[in-house]
Every structure is written in structure tokens, then in C-alpha cells.
């Protein structure tokens, strides 16, 4: 089964989620409506809902709350992206102007708050106390991740632990909880839902590291924004961290980063230094280690179609180049 | 028992809440830390924690989760104020510059998100599923209230229902849930906690209407910001609504409001028109009706000290002039 095949199989559910999202984002206020609809139309891979749907196959995949859970997860993800763009001062996402660039920080603030409110509104209808606990946790972690990001911007001395905690909060926990909540919504056993949590967590760590690698090695066309955007915005990700560990490179890189108003040539130089330092390969190795851990968890799950689909998703995350 | 007496009796609990707040707002990032500490030091009446503490006297007031609940409610309130100031473009609150005025909208966004994350973090530790449901609801309502506020800014044609829904979401629900959560945390009966919910709800409606009246009748010194700030920021509150109902006034008021760059004299004129229209008295009557409903609920509660304290708080809300 290919990834396209997995999406095709979930076509009806994905459509149901899409219309749930559209309904949730109907807004009475024109700017809010336009901003939300732009975000919706910008699409994205909807990987979190997909993980929830496949995890729900370990129980009864027909339960109606599965679609609501999946939509809630995507809404929380969307809300966090809008606020992240304010923190990172990002003007482009997937080649389109961000809310904060198209309007301003104020509009981005309330658009994020609105999408978030809609997510919470969907949650309020859930009867399961675990669902509330799980979603409280993800909301907490996403916000703490946002704060970590602010705190560590332009901090060229941060350690690996700090980076890993940040991507855990920013990405991995939401993927872990997508699997766990999908599973619990289907009524599957706690043991299975816990394993799925860890699968999603390791997958999410690998996914974010790959994202951070692609930010260096992707082309502007693939990325929809200039290469090295993270670095330009002061965000120290794994490749930068590894490059800064090399004494002979550290001072040269930090020299450029600390200079006032680096030119485009300066940026290209520092990006090349990082790319040629072996930092990309080291990052790939760490990403692969997380991916292997995700795959190992699958051995502990029942042999069934859903398990093969999760393996396919892991393969995709390992190979993706955009 | 006077209001001061009630606070004095709760002195130790209030101190415990204050230090819980201080601990929750310790931030690793200098701006975030300073912004949060300024908010904490600006104080305020801590009316929500007080309501939670008194409501907890209907059960076992010694349970440790009561303090955490009360602190969570105050954190949610603080977070919503910071984002509200961005929506309303307010530069002053209680005579001090707001976060968005002292820094900018970006800092206000992430400071609000941070305080909110800390609240959710405290919630995550709660074992009671009702607590999660209650807090999901208040978060949803506060965010929806924020959106209502944006939607209705500069809408001079809005109806009374719309205003009442907005203040319900913005203020009354949080007060209602402060009472309910305080009660539930103390392990009191569901019947009592439900009555306390309604007491808090009616009290909150009256409280916000009084706030909206004070914005017109208070002096700049009392308010810590210019009189008529709501109106100047495009926020149609109850006195404006009532004044606009009078045909002979409607066109004169809207004429000034719709003019480009009204002068300070224009503002003073429109504020006088509203104050002299009988709108303040009409607003006071509606506030009193809500307050009476709050007091009526107290008749259905056990005759005990806590009930007398809640009566005293209602009296205070009815009489407060700052």
C-alpha cells in the first residue's frame, strides 16, 4: 500500500473531516473568515487527522467521535501555526503569505485564538474525560513550545536537550496524541493506545528533524520560502546546532550571525558552511534513529492492515524531500 | 461582615493563591517575565479566586485542590485581559500601560499564550473530569467573547441580545464557573454547585454592566484611563445601546461616531449626550435586575456564613463606584 493508497482509502473520512473543519471555521467577521478560509484552502498533508483515522482502526472505526477528534487535532495544529508565524516573524508558509504578513500581528493573534476556540468547542462535546486530559496536555505543550521558541531565539549556545524538548512540544506531542486520541475514540484497549502514542511521538520527532533539515537543503520553490529561513529568523535547529559544535566553524558562523544586518551573501555563506559541515548527515542519522524507534513499536502491535499503513507512513516520513 | 472582613478572613488562602500565581508566572524569558510580573503586581480585586474560596465553604474548604482551582481561574482571567487589550487597542489598564502598549501586539500575544499555557498546566494535574469540562467551556466562551467583540466593534446597529451574549461570554461565565469549580473542588453536592453557578452568572452580568456604566460616569483618575474609552475604541456597551434607541439622539450620536477623526470635543459631546439620555439609569435598572436574581438564588442555599458572605459580595457589586 502506498501513501496515496492510504489517503484514497480514507477518502470519505477525510472529506468528512474537511467539511467539519470548514463548518468550524465559518466566521461572522469578514477578515476572520477570509484568514481562516485561506488557511483551510492552503491545505497541507492533514497528517494528524490521518494518524487519528488509522489509529482508530484498532477499535471500532465507525464511531462518530473519531471524525470530531481528528478535526479537533487539525484545528489545534492550525491555530498553533498562526501564532508561530508571529513568534518567528514568518512572512511565507507553503508559498503563501502568512496571516501576520497579509494583515498584521493583531489579526494573527485573534485568528489563532478563534481557531483555537473552535477546537475547544468541539472538545467540549466529548464525553470522555481522557480526551479532555489529552487535549489539555497538547494545548499546554504547544504553548510551552511557543515560549521555548521565543526564549531560545538567537541563542547560539543552546544544547541538544533544549532543541529536542522544543520539537517534542512543538510537533511530536501533537502527533503522539493524534494517534492516542484516534485510538481511544475507537474504543480500543489502553495498551494499544499507549503503543500508538509512542509510535506517534517517535514519528513526530523524526518528522520535525526532517523539516528542519529540509529548511536548509530544499530549494525556495520546494519550501515556499527562502532556504535557511529558520536560521534567518534566529531559530537554532538541529543542523545549526551540529555545525556550531565544530570548533573551527563555530566562530566563523557566529561571527556572521552576530553581525548587524547580514547581507544575502552572508546568509548564503553561513548556510553553505552549515551544509558542508556534515551537520545535515548527523541530523539525518538522529532522524533515522527516531524513525527506527517508531517502526520498532509497530512490532508490538497486532499484525493487521492498520499496522502496515503506519509502517508506510513511517517510510514516507523517512524519505520525504519536500 | 464587610467585604474587607471577607478578604481578611481569607487572608491565608489569598496569600497561598498569590504565591501559586507568582510561581506559575516565573518565566525563563526576560520580556515575558517582566510582562507577567507587571500584570501580577497590578493586582486587581482577585474577585474570581474569592468567589471560588467562598463557594468551597459549602463542602470541605481544606481540600488542597481548591487553591489550584482558584489560581487557574485567575490565570485564565489574566490571559484574556492581555489579549482583550490587543483587540480593543487599549493602552491603559488600571492606570498602567498595557502589555501591548508597553511592548507591542506580538509580545501581548505570546504573554497571553504563556499565561494561558500555565493555567492549562495547572488544570492538567486535576483528577476530576468535570473540572476539565468546566474549564474547556470557559476557555471556549472567553475566546468566542473575544471574537464577538471584534465582530461587533463599530457596529452601531447591534441589538441587546448580542450585547448580553458578549458580556456573558466575556465575564459572567468565568464568574459562574469560579463559583461552580470552587464548590466542586470542595466536594459539595451537585445541587449546591449548580445554584452557585447561577449566583455567579447573575453576579457577573451585573458586574460587567456596572463596569460598562463606570466607563462613562467614572473620572479618568478613578478609571485609570479616559472616560468613554469603550466608545472611543468602537465598543458598543449597554449605555450606548440604550442611547441609540432614542430616535432624536440616534442620528446625532452616530453622526459624531462616524465622522473621521473625531476631536476630543466631539468625544466629550457624544459622551454627554449618552449620559444625559437616561441610558445610564436604564443600564443601572438592568444591572439591578441581575443582581436581584443573584440574591434570590442565595435564598435557596443553606443558611450559613458563606451565604452571608456571598450576599455581601452582591451588595458590593451593586454599590461599587470604581
From TrEMBL, chains A, B:
<dbReference type="InterPro" id="IPR033749">
    <property type="entry name" value="Polyprenyl_synt_CS"/>
</dbReference>
<keyword id="KW-0479">Metal-binding</keyword>
<dbReference type="GO" id="GO:0004659">
    <property type="term" value="F:prenyltransferase activity"/>
</dbReference>
<dbReference type="Pfam" id="PF00348">
    <property type="entry name" value="polyprenyl_synt"/>
</dbReference>
<dbReference type="GO" id="GO:0046872">
    <property type="term" value="F:metal ion binding"/>
</dbReference>
<protein>
    <submittedName>
        <fullName>Heptaprenyl diphosphate synthase component 2</fullName>
    </submittedName>
</protein>
<keyword id="KW-0460">Magnesium</keyword>
<comment type="similarity">
    <text>Belongs to the FPP/GGPP synthase family.</text>
</comment>
<dbReference type="GO" id="GO:0008299">
    <property type="term" value="P:isoprenoid biosynthetic process"/>
</dbReference>
<dbReference type="InterPro" id="IPR000092">
    <property type="entry name" value="Polyprenyl_synt"/>
</dbReference>
<dbReference type="InterPro" id="IPR008949">
    <property type="entry name" value="Isoprenoid_synthase_dom_sf"/>
</dbReference>
<keyword id="KW-0808">Transferase</keyword>
Amino acid at each position: 500500500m502506498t501513501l496515496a493508497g492510504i489517503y484514497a482509502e480514507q477518502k470519505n473520512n477525510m472529506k468528512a473531516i474537511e467539511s467539519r473543519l470548514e463548518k468550524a471555521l465559518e466566521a461572522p467577521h469578514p477578515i476572520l473568515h477570509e484568514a481562516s478560509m485561506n488557511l483551510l484552502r492552503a491545505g497541507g498533508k492533514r497528517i494528524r487527522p490521518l494518524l487519528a483515522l488509522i489509529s482508530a482502526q484498532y477499535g471500532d472505526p465507525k464511531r462518530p467521535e473519531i471524525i470530531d477528534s481528528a478535526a479537533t487535532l487539525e484545528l489545534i495544529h492550525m491555530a498553533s501555526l498562526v501564532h508561530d508565524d508571529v513568534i518567528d516573524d514568518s512572512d511565507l508558509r507553503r508559498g503563501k503569505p502568512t496571516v501576520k504578513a497579509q494583515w498584521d500581528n493583531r489579526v494573527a493573534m485573534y485568528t489563532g485564538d478563534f481557531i483555537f476556540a473552535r477546537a475547544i468547542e468541539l472538545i467540549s462535546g466529548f464525553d470522555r474525560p481522557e480526551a479532555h486530559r489529552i487535549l489539555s496536555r497538547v494545548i499546554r505543550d504547544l504553548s510551552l513550545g511557543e515560549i521555548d521558541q521565543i526564549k531560545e531565539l538567537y541563542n547560539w549556545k543552546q544544547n541538544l536537550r533544549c532543541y529536542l524538548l522544543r520539537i517534542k512540544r512543538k510537533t511530536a506531542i501533537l502527533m503522539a496524541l493524534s494517534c492516542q486520541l484516534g485510538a481511544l475514540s475507537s474504543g480500543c484497549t489502553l495498551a494499544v493506545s499507549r503503543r500508538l502514542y509512542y509510535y506517534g511521538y517517535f514519528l513526530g520527532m523524526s518528522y520535525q528533524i526532517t523539516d528542519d533539515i529540509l529548511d536548509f537543503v530544499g530549494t525556495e520553490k520546494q519550501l515556499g520560502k527562502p532556504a535557511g529561513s529558520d536560521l534567518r529568523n534566529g531559530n537554532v535547529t538541529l543542523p545549526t546546532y551540529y555545525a556550531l559544535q565544530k570548533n573551527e566553524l563555530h566562530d566563523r558562523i557566529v561571527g556572521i550571525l552576530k553581525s548587524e544586518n547580514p547581507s544575502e551573501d552572508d546568509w548564503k555563506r553561513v548556510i553553505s558552511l552549515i551544509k558542508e559541515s556534515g551537520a545535515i548527515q548527523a541530523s539525518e542519522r538522529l532522524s533515522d534513529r527516531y524513525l527506527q524507534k517508531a517502526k520498532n513499536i509497530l512490532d508490538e502491535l497486532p499484525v493487521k492492515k492498520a499496522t502496515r499503513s503506519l509502517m508506510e507512513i513511517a517510510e514516507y516520513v523517512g524519505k520525504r524531500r519536500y
